[in-house]
Target: GNAT family N-acetyltransferase
Amino acid sequence: MTEQQRERRDALAERVRADRRIRHHILFKRGEELAGWYFGQQETATRYLMVNTALFPEHRRKGIYTALLRSLLPHLEALGFQEVVSLHHATNNPVLIAKLKAGFLITGMEIDDRFGLLVRLTYFTHPIRRRMMAVRTWERWLDEELRGCLGRTGDLRGRTRVP
Model:
């Protein structure tokens, strides 16, 4: 982490301690008509949770959600967040596809008694964390730079060969 990244992380941690978490409430309009809404909030010093987004059916597939992601993700990165997380119904293909195209990765699944089967998606703003995720999911080999980031705690169970 750079010094600037550490300072941003520490500032975000202070917001959590003081219960002054960053929250975004956005209404989408097309002309004078309400098209939908978005709500998201800081979860930890490094994680932001996209809590709820909804677009009315007549406003879907018109680029509103993609425009939200294109403006929100750089904003969250500039604030210092390293992860942007969201949960979605496993059958919500339009949103899952939009998020995967935007660079989110599938990082888990859970079964919730209220919502059913959910897919957890995470967008890593830090390139080293994104690359490390590819190592952890067996998509790439550990390289020297990533090995240096692990220190002595990185147990990759023998998967440390550099191709």
Remarks:
- The helical segments are 3-17, 64-79, 93-101, 127-136, 144-150.
- The chain has one domain: 3-125.
